[in-house]
Design brief:
Layout: E1 2-3, H1 7-16, H2 24-29, E2 36-41, E3 46-51, E4 55-60, E5 64-65, H3 68-85, H4 94-115, H5 120-133, E6 140-142, H6 143-152, H7 160-179, E7 190-192, H8 193-221, H9 226-242, H10 258-262, H11 272-282, H12 290-299, H13 311-324, H14 329-332, H15 338-344
Antiparallel strand pairs: 1-5, 2-3, 3-4, 6-7
């Protein structure tokens, strides 16, 4: 449920329901926020709601309004309720099981739409960084706060043209959030966390397209066909995953960049050590004197901020390795097809 965006209306509704002044300050801070109902007193017409920012608060029903997401879930629950109520203590019959599964499906679909295709761990990262710029703890941020947030994660907001472009994307994000079942905050220049999520989805889609264009251009310049690129991508991803990734328990730093949060398509990478292990698994003969050569070559190709090979750099490196027959790579793979060679290089 969402708290209505009028402090006076919230206060009046809660006082009429007999709620004391004790919680008025906290309830006022939650105005416009999306909260989760955890308990209710039907006779008194009040509900207890929870928010990560505001904790547990009691509200009068008149101080709350439905979101589209909550309505979808309520409608599904209403349709499933008769079948569920007919269950005996012995368990669910098949029809009730189907109804319950359908209810869970609706809840899952609503949640997935709200998340804009991001994982639960990514949602946690976004929520942590969003909270740092929500100065009043309302659960929403205004246009100035969101511009500061975007600037701090590295999205250019300095020029008038930049700000106009971001404004257009924000309106698109707000529309997408509404279509996903999230009611927008009151006011044209106030944005919810879920509006921000949709904005990040727009940004990631843009970066993914730019990344694929870069990969296509690079592979064409290096004379790799689509099959070879797909095979190189497969082995690259497997080795990159072996190096590990972001720890969900790690606190989100204030200096996280947009690349840290949503990636630029090139965020996966492999280190020089992983590259050496990959070559050794192919059967290449490498000596100690070869390592400085690899180190220098890596500097000339695509790398991330940590100096590790991104996928574009990996393609460039593979072309150089094959053309220079580094470590005898051509002989090592002469008796194998390219696909077999790549599969044998997997780190397991």
């Amino acid at each position: 449920m969402r708290v209505v965006g009028d402090v006076s209306r919230v206060k009046e509704a809660c006082e009429s329901a007999g709620l004391t002044d004790k919680g008025n300050v906290a309830r006022s801070a939650a105005v416009g926020s999306v909260l989760y109902v955890v308990d209710r007193d039907v006779n008194a017409g009040i509900v207890r709601c929870h928010s990560p920012l505001h904790g547990d608060l009691w509200f009068a029903l008149g101080a709350l309004c439905e979101t589209r997401a909550s309505k979808d879930i309520a409608d599904a629950f209403e349709g499933s309720l008769p079948s569920l109520q007919s269950c005996s203590n012995q368990g669910l019959d098949f029809d009730s099981f189907v109804e319950l599964a359908d209810l869970f499906r609706v809840v899952r679909n609503v949640w997935d739409r709200m998340k804009a295709g991001f994982s639960d761990l990514e949602i946690k990262r976004f929520r942590d960084i969003f909270a740092k710029f929500d100065s009043d703890g309302s659960g929403d941020i205004d246009d100035k706060e969101i511009m500061i947030l975007l600037a701090n994660i590295g999205i250019e907001c300095k020029t008038k043209a930049n700000q106009l472009a971001i404004g257009e994307r924000l309106e698109k994000a707000r529309k997408l959030a509404s279509e996903a079942g999230v009611q927008s905050p009151d006011g044209p220049k106030v944005y919810s966390f879920w509006d921000f999520m949709q904005l990040m989805r727009i940004e990631r889609t843009k970066r993914d397209r730019e990344y694929e264009d870069m990969v296509q251009e690079t592979s064409s310049n290096l004379n790799f066909d689509s099959t070879e690129v797909a095979q190189f991508r497969e082995i690259f991803i497997h080795w990159a995953r072996q190096q590990g990734g972001w720890d969900a328990a790690e606190p989100v730093r204030i200096d996280k960049t947009v690349e840290d949060l949503i990636g630029d398509g090139l965020e996966q990478s492999i280190s020089k050590i992983s590259l050496i292990k990959l070559l050794q698994s192919l059967g290449c003969t490498l000596q100690t004197k070869d390592e400085p050569t690899l180190t220098e070559k890596i500097k000339d190709v695509g790398t991330n901020r940590d100096g590790q090979l991104n996928f574009v750099g990996f393609l460039q490196m593979m072309r150089w390795l094959l053309d220079s027959n580094f470590g005898g790579i051509n002989k090592a793979t002469a008796n194998l097809s390219r696909k077999e060679s790549l599969v044998s290089a997997r780190p397991w």
